[in-house]
Amino acid sequence: NSKPPVCKILNYGKIKYEAKKKLHNSKKKQHVIKIKEVRVRPAIGENDLNTKMNLGRKFLTDGCKLKVTVMFRGRELSRAEEMGDAILERIKMILEDIAEPEKQSELEGRRVSVMFTAK
After folding, report:
1. Per-residue pLDDT tens for 8-30?
2. Alpha-carbon distance 99 to 115, whole Å?
3. What is the pTM of this model?
4. pLDDT value at position 1?
5. CA nearest 84: which of 60, 110, 62?
6. DSSP 74
7. Is 49 inside a domain boundary?
């Protein structure tokens, strides 16, 4: 409240640039959790399943969440619950040392899926 009022001359471009840099750095520090998906079929072979789960292990150790989806075709859909649960139990046993399921398996259309997070 001085007489005459105190005024500061600023370079608006510089202030705008600093605000933009501050916003960019705050966005860079945010951590976004990625979800990686591995799709399998009910009639998958043992070695094929192990190969897919090794890929899933890599995703989990990289810090991503892993979504395992069992896809059904045709008449497989009539036994989707039991076949899907059997495959997902095998997958849970394979990944139990490094991951745990977030929630129970759920049937969505022609797919049964489970989300895994690293321990």
Report:
1. 888 999 999 999 999 999 988 88
2. 10
3. 0.72
4. 67
5. 110
6. G
7. yes
Domain, as residue range, for 43: 35-118
Of 114, 109, 45, 36, nearest to 73 by C-alpha is: 109
Amino acid at site 13: G
Is residue 21 one of the residues assigned to a domain? Answer: no
Cite the beta strand spans of 14-64 per DSSP E: 35-40
| Residue 112 near residue 69, CB atoms below 8 Å | yes
Euclidean distance between CA atoms 37 and 68, whole angstroms: 6
Structure tokens, 48: 């094929």
- Flag whether pLDDT at 103 surpasses 90: no
CATH of the domain at 85: 3.30.110.10
Of 67, 68, 74, 76, nearest to 43 by C-alpha is: 76
